[in-house]
Amino acid sequence: MGIITSTVRVGQKPTKEQLKQLKAIAKKPIHYTEDCPASTPEALQEFAALAVARRRNRQNPSPVIAIRIKPNVLEKYKALGKGYTSIMADVLDYAANNPEILTKAQV
């Protein structure tokens, strides 16, 4: 059995040929010995590491971003100790949810 690759972009509908291929593939039985070879211990270890990373990312779905902060402000947050970035995120969240703070900050 060969591998069929096809690209469908976001918002694009699959072509009639692609739909025909999918229907044909869906009818074929899976042969586990041919289609799914036995994993090596190294592959299983890599898979386990990926699973742990995915679980960790699902628990903390916040996007990672980069922002510019004045050095003196960063020093004050760092002085709070371990977890200072979470405190920064909480302060930003509080400010974003209180319009009166945002209107005072606008120059």
Explained architecture:
The protein is mostly helical and 107 residues long. The chain is 59% helix and 0% strand. The protein is built from six helices and no strands.
List the helices and strands and how they pair.
Elements: H1 16-27, H2 32-35, H3 41-59, H4 71-78, H5 84-96, H6 99-105
Count of beta strands:
0
Q: What is the alpha-carbon Rg in Å?
A: 25 Å
- How much of the sequence lies in strands comes to under 5%
Order of helix and strand elements from N to C terminus = HHHHHH
Low-confidence stretches: none
- Please identify the structural class as seen in this structure: mainly alpha
Overall residue-averaged pLDDT value: 82
Q: What shape does the CA trace take? A: elongated
Count of helical regions: 6
Taking the alpha carbons of the first and last residues, their distance comes to 65 Å
Largest sheet: none
Q: Percent range for helical residues? A: 55-70%
Key words describing this protein structure:
6 helices; 107 residues; mainly alpha
TL;DR?
Helix content is 59%, strand content 0%. It is mainly α and 107 residues long.
